[in-house]
């Protein structure tokens, strides 16, 4: 069941309290009915006494996959680690304008689908990956200059980690983690560097404080968003709608 963007915008500004979802703003009758239909399909039932749609579990967790994919999905997805398909990797490399000898970071690297392709272009590649089993795959492949096994969001730039010419990444998406990872990763660039990242299409229409902060960074740095085709990650097991963010480091951002 495809969900129109105007309904996704309504869901994005809803208020959540455990199993309760309360719609906000003024909705005309058609938009309300279209939204209510989506909520019901996602498991929410209108409760007149509560004046809210009630879910069996956490309402925000039920709605987040709808916002990410633009459709009602039958199976619960965490939107964490999904390997980057080859065609998407190549597009990332092209948009990053990769050149031999560049220093490149892949944070939350998974098993290195991006890092290995970047290393093949003659770059010096560092990886940060929280899962030791994934980091072992990268280590055994032998192309990484440095592998840190830790949560990227707890890793600070500096302290022995150099500024990079490029950051190329496919971060986790759950609960807008893609925005958190991308904004943090931008701090790892040297002046004149470039960050290229797969992100949820939600950054194009959501109006949360975090999304507004990201779009301010995008505007300040002269960045761009490039839409990926629907189903770009189907082979990796997710229907999330995605874009590629290209963000230079042309002004201070800490």
From TrEMBL:
Domain Methyltransferase small stretches: 101-216
Entry keywords, A to Z: Methyltransferase, Transferase
InterPro entries documented for this protein: SAM-dependent_MTases_sf (IPR029063), Small_mtfrase_dom (IPR007848)
Keyword Manganese: no
Keyword check for Methyltransferase: yes
Name of the featured protein: Lambda phage type II DNA modification methyltransferase
Gene Ontology biological-process entries: methylation
CDD domains listed in its UniProt record: AdoMet_MTases (cd02440)
GO MF entries: methyltransferase activity
Pfam family, any one: MTS
């Amino acid at each position: 069941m495809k969900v129109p963007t105007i309904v996704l915008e309504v869901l994005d500004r809803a208020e959540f309290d455990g199993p309760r979802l309360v719609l906000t703003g003024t909705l005309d009758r058609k938009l309300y009915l279209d939204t209510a239909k989506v909520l019901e399909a996602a498991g929410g039932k209108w409760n007149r006494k509560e004046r809210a749609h009630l879910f069996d579990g956490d309402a925000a967790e039920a709605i987040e996959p709808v916002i990410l994919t633009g459709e009602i999905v039958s199976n619960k997805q965490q939107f964490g680690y999904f390997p980057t398909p080859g065609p998407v990797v190549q597009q990332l490399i092209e948009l990053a304008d990769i050149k031999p000898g560049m220093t490149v970071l892949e944070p939350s690297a998974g098993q290195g689908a991006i890092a290995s392709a970047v290393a093949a272009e003659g770059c010096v590649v560092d990886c940060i990956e929280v899962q030791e089993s994934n980091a072992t795959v990268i280590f055994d492949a032998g192309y990484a200059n440095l592998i840190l096994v830790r949560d990227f969001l707890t890793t600070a730039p500096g302290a022995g980690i150099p500024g990079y010419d490029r950051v190329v990444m496919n971060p986790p998406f759950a609960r807008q983690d893609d925005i958190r990872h991308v904004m943090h990763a931008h701090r790892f660039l040297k002046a004149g560097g470039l960050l290229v990242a797969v992100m949820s299409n939600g950054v194009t229409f959501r109006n949360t404080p975090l999304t507004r902060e990201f779009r301010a960074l995008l505007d300040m740095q002269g960045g761009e968003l490039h839409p990926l085709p629907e189903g770009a990650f189907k082979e990796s097991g997710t229907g999330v709608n995605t874009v590629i963010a290209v963000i230079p480091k042309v002004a201070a951002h800490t």
